[in-house]
């Protein structure tokens, strides 16, 4: 039997439920892209893509791909009514200039002080590739992370201090894992809510730094 | 009469020298000026520094130029992508230098070069290994990294429409680095899907005014290349 936990779609639904109407949001490559499909149809959230799109829409139907319209992950996408195109310097002005309300990123590790490591797995990495991760992490108003709570072998990804190369210092404010939703505060990791099948003691054991249960313990 | 349009790719690329720094537009395959890039092989320039977001894919465009051994160094944000086999083989063999730059820093270094700004402070990469040994400064309680402008000797860009004054428009997400790079080089060369009469482009929709552009090659020249 698989351990208790939310599916990636359920994680995406939790993130989407916390995004209010009117936010401009950048979704990182990987699990965060699932959030796009989880945003309720009646809620206007404007998606930004680093390569020069605002108002990014879902993937086109098969056969309807426009070769000129891709996202930062180089997948074919569509553009919503009200969407806009712009060049790379303007795109990153939006990011660093604090105009993006939220960026949701994947992570190798998040430290209790909000440090993020999500771009390189080791110092010896043959050909590193950073893309826009460091700009997004440093520039967006809020950084939320979506990640499995541990690696496949059970090693915590929420840690005292990152061992992987850092992407940015002290930027992550919330983490959505397959087991829990956790705020990153000046006091460290604080549980917002957790999967019903996961005991607090087990959750603490799978977290690499103190996890304050607070009022969310019963959720 | 000002006429920046050229009929042949040889004219478009004339004068590019060994050791040049060449800005190459595009994001992945979209907006990448493959005709100009591949024609650099026949043009003959060597020992090039290429500035581009990606390091090519498959065996076309940038990958083909690298395979031909013309690229000494590449400055980019994301060299690893599906199909970047040529770059990775050269990198592992120590035959190409790699300078990794965060994507937004890359865009802003190019913008700065085109705008006469020699350097700037950015929050991106502060405290990471990509800012190692770089000058930093605390401004208003936050830490920033000093980054320098990144000018090119040449920019190769892909436009959708162009006129003989060098005014350019782009197509959807094909604008990407093209519009920024067009401002940042001593010699900007555009390959254009459509070259139209002067006055045919709506001034409200011109993204790159012709002042930034020196040569325009219609993509119909591709047929000549094949012939």
TrEMBL record, chain A:
It comes from the Bacteria. Keywords: Transferase. Pfam families: CoA_trans. GO terms for molecular function: CoA-transferase activity. The keyword Transferase applies. Belongs to the 3-oxoacid CoA-transferase subunit B family. This is 3-oxoacid CoA-transferase subunit B. It comes from Acidisoma silvae. The lineage of its organism: Bacteria, Pseudomonadati, Pseudomonadota, Alphaproteobacteria, Acetobacterales.
Automatic annotation (TrEMBL), chain B:
One of its GO terms (molecular function) is CoA-transferase activity. Pfam families: CoA_trans. It comes from the Bacteria. The keyword Transferase applies. PROSITE patterns: COA_TRANSF_1 (PS01273). SMART domains: CoA_trans (SM00882). Keywords: Transferase. InterPro entries: 3-oxoacid_CoA-transf_A, CoA_trans_fam_I, CoA_transf_BS, NagB/RpiA_transferase-like. Belongs to the 3-oxoacid CoA-transferase subunit A family. NCBIfam families: pcaI_scoA_fam (TIGR02429). This is 3-oxoacid CoA-transferase subunit A.
């Amino acid at each position: 039997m698989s351990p208790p936990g939310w599916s990636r779609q359920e994680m995406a639904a939790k993130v989407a439920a916390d995004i209010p109407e009117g936010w401009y949001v950048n979704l990182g490559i990987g699990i965060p892209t699932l959030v796009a499909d989880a945003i309720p149809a009646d809620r206007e959230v404007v998606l930004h893509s680093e390569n020069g799109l605002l108002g990014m829409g879902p993937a086109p139907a098969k056969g309807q791909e426009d070769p000129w319209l891709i996202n930062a992950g180089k997948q074919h996408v569509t553009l919503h009514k009200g969407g806009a195109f712009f060049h790379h310097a303007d795109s990153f002005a939006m990011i660093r200039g604090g105009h993006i309300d939220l960026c949701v990123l994947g992570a190798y590790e998040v430290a209790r002080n909000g440090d993020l490591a999500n771009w390189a797995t080791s110092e010896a990495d043959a050909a590193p590739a950073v893309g826009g991760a460091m700009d997004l992490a440093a520039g967006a108003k809020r950084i939320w992370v979506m990640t499995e709570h541990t690696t496949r072998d059970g090693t915590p990804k929420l840690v005292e201090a990152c061992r992987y190369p850092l992407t940015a210092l002290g930027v992550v404010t919330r983490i959505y894992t397959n087991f829990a939703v956790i705020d990153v505060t000046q006091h460290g990791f604080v549980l917002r809510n957790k999967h019903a099948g996961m005991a607090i003691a087990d959750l603490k054991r799978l977290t690499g730094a103190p996890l304050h249960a607070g009022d969310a313990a019963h959720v | 009469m000002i006429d920046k349009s050229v009929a042949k790719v040889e004219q478009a690329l004339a004068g590019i020298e060994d050791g040049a720094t060449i800005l190459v537009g595009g994001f992945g395959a979209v907006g990448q000026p493959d005709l100009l890039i591949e024609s650099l092989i026949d043009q003959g320039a060597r020992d090039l520094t290429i500035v581009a977001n990606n390091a090519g894919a498959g065996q076309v465009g940038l990958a083909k130029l690298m395979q031909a051994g013309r690229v000494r160094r590449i400055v980019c944000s994301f060299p690893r992508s599906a199909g970047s086999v040529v770059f990775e083989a050269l990198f592992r063999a120590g035959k190409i230098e790699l300078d990794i730059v965060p994507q937004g820093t890359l865009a802003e270094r190019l913008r700065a070069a085109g705008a006469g700004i020699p350097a700037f402070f950015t929050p991106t990469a502060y405290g990471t290994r990509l800012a190692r040994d770089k000058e930093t400064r605390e401004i208003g309680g936050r830490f920033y990294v000093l980054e320098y402008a990144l000018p090119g000797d040449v920019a190769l860009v892909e436009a959708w429409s162009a006129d003989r004054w060098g005014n350019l428009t782009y197509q959807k997400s094909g604008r990407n680095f093209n519009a920024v790079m067009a401002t940042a080089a001593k010699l900007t060369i555009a390959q254009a899907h459509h070259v139209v009469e002067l006055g045919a482009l709506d001034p409200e929709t011109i993204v790159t005014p012709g002042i930034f552009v020196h040569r325009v090659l219609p993509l119909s020249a591709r047929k000549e290349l094949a012939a």
